[in-house]
């Protein structure tokens, strides 16, 4: 038979490797849960029209879409935000704030490169029904706490902007059609200054205004420090000043969460024009060695496209592939190895029933326990216990049982001790 390999951009992860992935996913999910976000479960396949309503043409070109046997045009989930919008619309009885998280696979036919795959895990964390800087600050705080717990907080910074603020600043400069200008601003990092100014002028922006936009979008620094500079440069316009005040309130809220030091104000951050309406942010490797880790923001207009309710929303999608690269660089990627608390070894078949009883009791105490399934001798059982990184081997033999004890071996040191049968669970748990 011909060997069949997995598709490009799709990965097989054997237990040793996935143990590390599971450790990282657990940190992300536990952090979200501790902030009061509740786990949901959603379909892997949706009607294609769900994504056509708001997703850009580029995303639709990347989807895995097909016609099912019922003649429906369906799509493997490339992102979860439209699904969540649909869920919120279907349940008018949900109490706000609605705080959800979910980890699942997504699919996009992209060019495979480091940190970008065609099948990938994401964890989405969102707040629905609340339009406030407190909700904005909380989702950023969740993200910052995740990286703190992963041990790389000093390598991650959050670049923050507010599309409402940028809109107000541009309109105060007398610029109409701000979407075209924002597309140029979104590319600013890739352009030399003269190229940036030329691109702005190509959209119809006057030279003086282009210079002013360049100055404003060059604001980048610690959010609590840059607010004052922003006030100085902002035009004397009611909408612009109101947007500046909101950014100041966000900075105060981030300080209250203890994460303001990781946050920088950056007026050149725009993100997807098809989705975001206010706050936008991206997590970056502070040393610039990796592409953006992930991003998020406020998308207050999206939910209303899927039903009668207008529901404000803010959140982010945590990407694992690029974060994995960062953790590996910093030596913080978990060990790719199996872990087992106890292996219960039966000296002979005569005591197998007793060995299984010990295993059952230890599992009841929350331990990961394995026993012999291959009728191995004692030496073979020790070899297998070593291969699964068992911390302890519980040796069950008839002579020990007659004495009311069992033998416990520490696999690191090789030390053995005899433990009374009634104390085994307490000692090992």
Automatic annotation (TrEMBL):
Entry superkingdom: Archaea
Residues forming coiled coils: none
Domain Aminoacyl-transfer RNA synthetases class-II family profile: 1-429
Keywords, comma-separated and alphabetical: Aminoacyl-tRNA synthetase, ATP-binding, Cytoplasm, Ligase, Nucleotide-binding, Protein biosynthesis
SUPFAM superfamilies: Class II aaRS ABD-related, Class II aaRS and biotin synthetases
Catalytic activity: tRNA(His) + L-histidine + ATP = L-histidyl-tRNA(His) + AMP + diphosphate + H(+)
Major enzyme class: ligase
Subcellular location: Cytoplasm
GO cellular component, as recorded: cytoplasm
GO molecular function: ATP binding; histidine-tRNA ligase activity
A Pfam family per the record: HGTP_anticodon
GO biological process, one term: histidyl-tRNA aminoacylation
Binding site for L-histidine: 79-81, 108, 122, 126, 271, 275-276
PROSITE patterns the UniProt entry points to: AA_TRNA_LIGASE_II
Keyword Protein biosynthesis attached: yes
The enzyme's E.C. designation: 6.1.1.21
NCBIfam families xrefs: hisS
Family: Belongs to the class-II aminoacyl-tRNA synthetase family.
UniProt-recorded name of the protein: Histidine--tRNA ligase
Naturally occurring in which organism (per UniProt): Halapricum desulfuricans
Name of the coding gene: hisS
